[in-house]
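Let us practice reading a record.
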Amino acid sequence: MIEGTTDEDIFERLRRLIVGQKGIEKAGEVTPNTSLRKDLEFDSLGLVDLTLACEDEFAIEIPPEDGDFEKVDTIQEAVSYVKKRLGMREQ
């Protein structure tokens, strides 16, 4: 496994991206169960921005036709998705 790719590491990196993108003052309010759409009110453009930020942060590719990422709702689901893409990169 690549260094810095534990669930906790990925979560912290995602949280940092989200806090920066949404301008959230208290990072502790963003938990693994936080919903991107309901709790953080990400719209489709915000999700595209987050997708691009994830690609840069984790050096992965998230193809637009990948329906799995579109189904991501919670931050934990995003962690699992990123971890899966990182695993594909290692192969």
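A brief commentary: Residues 7-90 form a domain with the Non-ribosomal Peptide Synthetase Peptidyl Carrier Protein; Chain A fold (CATH 1.10.1200.10).
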